[in-house]
Design brief:
Oligomer: single chain
Low-confidence stretches: 144-150
Order of helices and strands: EHEHHEEH
Shape: globular
Radius of gyration: 15 Å
Mean pLDDT: 91
Number of helices: 4
Strand content: 5-15%
Number of strands: 4
Structural class: alpha/beta
Strand order of the largest sheet: 2-1-3-4
Distance between the termini: 42 Å
Helix content: 25-40%
């Protein structure tokens, strides 16, 4: 049995974009990667609107806590994805570095975060397919229709 590749998502506060990346990687490629996230200046908690957008997909974020990225994270991750280009990382990246550019959803409403979530899901699906084409066969992120009532 082989260990799944570690994919580390990094943003400034580890409360929004990087949390979305790590959780969505598990949605699009369950069990195929060890997805984790961290931030340069971690917030106290995950952004509640980001958490709500993930809950819409059935993702449990109750255990998600923003944390500081470390040198060890960068040295052991197979892939490091920064959610903003040029982030000042605390050390060298030993694996592959991927830089994405997504805006900070810190003060966004749910509709805005849903659009961001879906954009990050699409990029995450592409990344998973690039790293392991078998990981995403037929898997999509299916957000609910906000017009539908349950």
């Amino acid at each position: 049995m082989t260990t799944p590749p570690t994919v580390l998502f990094i943003c400034q506060h580890n409360a929004g974009r990087s949390q979305l990346g790590a959780h969505l990687l598990e949605v699009v490629a369950p069990g195929r990667f060890a997805a984790t996230s961290a931030g340069l200046n971690p917030a106290d908690e995950i952004n509640p609107v980001v958490a709500e957008s993930l809950h819409e997909l059935g993702v449990d974020t109750s255990g998600a806590e923003p944390r500081l990225v470390t040198d060890a994270d960068l040295a052991t991750a197979d892939v490091v994805v920064t959610m903003k280009p040029g982030l000042p990382l605390p050390g060298p990246v030993a694996g592959r570095l991927v830089e994405w550019e997504f805006p900070n959803p810190e003060a966004w409403d749910l509709d805005g975060v849903r659009r961001l979530r879906d954009a990050i899901a699409a990029r995450t699906r592409e990344l998973a397919g690039d790293l392991d084409p078998q990981s995403v066969q037929g898997r999509t992120v299916n957000p609910p229709n906000p017009q539908e009532k349950s």
